[in-house]
Amino acid sequence: MRGNSLMEDVFRFADELGPTKIIHVYEPSVGLKAVLVVDNVARGPAIGGLRMAPDVSTGECFRLARAMTLKNAAADLPHGGGKSVIYGDPKMPKKEKETQIRAFASALRENQEYIFAPDMGTDEECMAWVKDEIGRVVGLPSDFGGIPLDEIGATGWGLSHVTEVALEYCDFDLEGARVVVQGFGAVGKHVARFLTGKGAMLVGVADSRGSIYNPQGLDVVALIELKKAGKSVADYPDGKKLDRDAVIDIECEIWIPAARPDVIDENNVHRLKAKLVIEGANIPITYGAEKYLHEKGVICVPDFIANAGGVICAAMEYQGAGQSAAFQAIEEKVCRNTRLVLEDAATKGILPREAAVDLALQRLKKCMGYRRWSLFSSAPGFV
User: Which domains does the chain have, with CATH numbers?
Assistant: First the structure.
């Protein structure tokens, strides 16, 4: 797909880091409309999830790819950042979904700079389809010798450890702390499971169809079973049913966004009643909202530090490691980086995101300086 508006997007996104490549794929015979953004490959081939949703965009894809560049650099992985999106309902008939994902993978067969991984709207089975087409993928089912990221809760595992480190900078303990999770999918359900297993109390949770609140606590296992049955968390019988966005208003100590981008912005951030925010989703909070929280004394651990567990696990899988080694690497890396970022933020009086970006850029630019690619870092590709 070519055109002036697309070229304008390319140049609007470009900076000293990337993107190195933006590819639009359109295959009308199967109803496929998709985008790949490879942002930066100075550290190695890009790893980034394949997202499927009806309202994705090139702009969102780029922002997510940039988040992956920073995430992989901060985690000190030998990978760059990329992201791919398919415009479509992830609940479409399975055969149609498989056809579209296979067609997209096939269209990107020659793009060795990008490694597929699961994301919102895709899962391990989808990655198996990609492997069958092109072989360049992580997050595979265990039957394929992979580490099923969503099934084992790699991102949630990391988030639970990030929370424990962040509590060193808070005035409350995890035992009895009230937790609210916005989004109860592969990330949200596992971080809720891990944190309640360590003594926290889940009091509120939301999915795309509603919220449920109980100040005495919610049963995580029962909520997971509801979701397995195709129901909403709002169908949980013992609590107050609320609309989806009301999850922002539930008072708690720890608030975890684990769904879509920009759920907290300058217009609704004043409604948040929490002491600690752990960003489980990618780009869930705008910079202006993070700045507001910082000024109010709320610690906000940014996405590419907090939710790196999934991509660390994916990188370990790509290197042939097993689940136990991956979980150990997740714990070590996210704990170290969270402590570095929060200590730097406290010492310099800056936002945790600013400290996190500094950390990632130091590691990324050092690698860029070693590579011939750095000579062309401001010239994105266009297909």
Answer: 4-146 (3.40.50.10860), 154-307+335-362 (3.40.50.720)
| 334 contacts: CB under 8 Å, gap ≥ 6 | 75, 158, 161, 162, 165, 305, 306, 308, 309, 312
Q: What is the pLDDT of residues 55-91, one digit of tens each?
A: 999 999 999 999 999 999 999 999 999 999 999 999 9
Question: Closest Cα to residue 219, out of 182, 257, 194, 193?
Answer: 193
3-state secondary structure of 293: helix
Judge contact between 105 and 69, C-beta under 8 A: no
User: What is the C-alpha to C-alpha distance for residues 380 and 8, in angstroms, rounded to an integer?
Assistant: 12
Question: Taking the model in full, what pTM does it have?
Answer: 0.86
> How many CA within 13 A on the CB side of residue 50?
33
Residue at 274: amino acid letter: A
Catalytic sites, residue numbers: 83
Residue 81 pairs with which residues in a beta bridge? 40, 47
| 358 CB-contact burial (10 Å; exposed 0-12 / middle 13-18 / buried 19+) | middle
Q: Residue 81: helix, strand or coil by DSSP?
A: strand
